[in-house]
Amino acid sequence: MDKQGKLEKDLIKYVHNTVPRQEIVCISADLVLDSRYRDIFKEYTFDVPFFLTEDCAAVHCTPLEGTERILLLGKEPTVHRGMYNVSLGIFKSFLFTIHCATKTIELTKELFIPVSCSLALGQAVTPRFEAQVYLTYSSCILEGESRNAWFFGQQPGEQFAFAMALGDAHPFVCVGSPSARVGACHDAGKITVFSIPDGVKLYEVSGTAQDDDFGFALDTGYDLNGDGWDDILVGAPSAKIGSAARAGYVRVLSGKDGTTLLTINHTEEEAQFGWAVSWAGDLDGDGVPDFLVAAPQASPEGKINAGSVFVYSGASGSLLYRLDGQNPGDAFGYALTTIGDVDGDGIPDLAIGAPLASPSGLYQAGEIYVYSGAAGSLIYKIEGTEFNAGLGFSLKALPDINGDGIPEILAGAPGSSPGGRSEAGSAYIFSSLDGSQLLHFAGPVSGEEVGIAVTPVGDLDNDGQPDLALGAPSASPHNKRFAGKVYLISSRTGQILQVLEGQESWNQFGWSVAGSSLLNANSILFIGSPGNDALYMYQGKRHIMRCEMHLCITLSVLQKREILIPAML
């Protein structure tokens, strides 16, 4: 061995930890012109994090140039003085192009390649390395199994899945059947709660009188009683309270077992209190989540059907404040949701739809109002710009996509006629910060009324953003009237990722939609089809990719002045 600082050869012995043992012997290209190496065989197995309902077979693998990075994992002395076994991790990114029946999907994955080599080092020297990884052969296959499920109501015509809501802490789906019969009481309504993803029925809760429509509106998301389960808001907007017909009531139920925690009755006739409900977070600073209840047919100050929204304390059920529609017939409160902190006071703010409002003389173009959750003061409003569009018919908060840290507003306008396609429907994403439009999806087919239901879902196309499911229950695919559709849309580009269709006429598939990505890498999408009393749970196919890859690695030592490498290993 030469003295430190005099290198005759910079020789690296690479041992790949596989069976049978394979080796690479490389000579650093910056010292000599010759390099010797062999292919390394490696197998990788990983889940594909996409919502796939169709067959996907062919996979093409492409290495991404210049993506190598090296991590020094360890340096252990050997029995030979000055000799060390150095463990490295080489990372390299690859692009996997997955070819499915109707589309092509791209997935970028950084793969890990373990490396060990023997070096003679001076004292206190930490070597630096450079690596190049080449792909000489790859073969990837997808193995998938369907994980979709179906739930059905118990009575024909109960409108099972007219509404639904998802619990997260202990995953469940709450399904509303507002036309269910309870004993001799027609249309009393009920809710049914199933655990997910296994679909086990946990319990039912029913309305108390004929025509209650209990289960017409639902929301979950907050634990009111502190038992670790998301609790459930249930609206019964057609209930008769005393002598007031269709006044309505709301119950707060324990998500764990369905016991009643609070009941709020309304006394204004025809107000339809409970048409829409939403948890709001802590608005009054008492540490307990509060909630919203809409009565879109209320007539405040004599303004017929202007609509009202009531904000209640979750701790006591007392009224915190009331918001009223501006003009007769606005249907203020037809849809509502809580968004992030728009005005910077640390308290969630509110978005409320008035789809029958006529801003600037545009008949029923619709409006969305954004209010301070703390004070109920108006922050701004978004006005519809198209006759009869009904902007604000549906509303959901969408996780932040523009980087301002505040969830966006996802809104449906099912009466919209984009490009002259009558009532094709539209959906919009608005910035919650100022109401500016971020995305417009224009329904592609006349009469489908895209946007009757909207929801964010998980990242379906692997672009780092949540995507959208848009219900079009009036669609008539393959001449099956009102069978319904759901469009899965990229929130970044508005591109249609997939279209799901109802199977029979009058199914109204897509009347309600709800999405979750909390259980695993694949999104779960629930689609209500109340026309045939069905709820569809789409988990797509769980795809595992198995790849056989042959790699060529060139490894170079950089700090050569301080490194002694024996000529023979």
From TrEMBL:
Keyword Glycoprotein: yes
Molecular functions (GO terms): integrin binding
UniProt keyword annotation of Glycoprotein present: yes
GO BP terms, alphabetized: cell adhesion mediated by integrin; cell-cell adhesion; cell-matrix adhesion; integrin-mediated signaling pathway
Source lineage: Bacteria, Bacillati, Bacillota, Clostridia, Eubacteriales
Signal peptide coordinates: none
Keywords, ordered alphabetically: Glycoprotein, Repeat, Signal
Protein name per its UniProtKB record: FG-GAP repeat protein
Domain of life: Bacteria
PANTHER family linked to this entry: INTEGRIN ALPHA, INTEGRIN ALPHA-PS1
Listed GO CC annotations: external side of plasma membrane; integrin complex
